[in-house]
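Journal club prep — side note

Before the paper discussion, L.F. wants everyone to see what a predicted structure for a comparable chain looks like in token form. Sequence:
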Amino acid sequence: MRIRILLGGLGLAVAAYGAWLLLGDDLADLVTIAVWLAAGVVLHDFVLVPLTLGVSWLGLRVLPGGSRAAASAGLVVLGTLTVLAVPVLGRWGANTDNTTILDRHYGLGWLAVAGLTIMGVLLVLVAKRRSGGPGARRR
């Protein structure tokens, strides 16, 4: 019980410090932070969730029952990596004065990770079919 109280107190102290730093900023910074937070909520609720539900609905209609779990795992991995890669794929923050910032072909890297993810999903499906596990075709 003491550890919980200690961790709770530590969490409150860190939150209070963050609020103190936030309130010490200019009003313009607070408006920018509020817009950024609101944009995240809007993008999540009106873009990411409907897209995920649409792809899931399509997967239920197209994929056989045994391959849905592997496809779902691949979708989660690819979706998360894509969301994380958007800033570098869009080259936001690139600076012509400093060529070491965003100095790689990030699109090719994303394609490589996407290919490896799809290959991993396919390998799981092949292994499941060969082992006769759940979702394998019965002969």
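L.F.'s comment for the group: Helices lie at 2-23, 27-62, 68-89, 106-131. Keep this in mind when we get to the figures.
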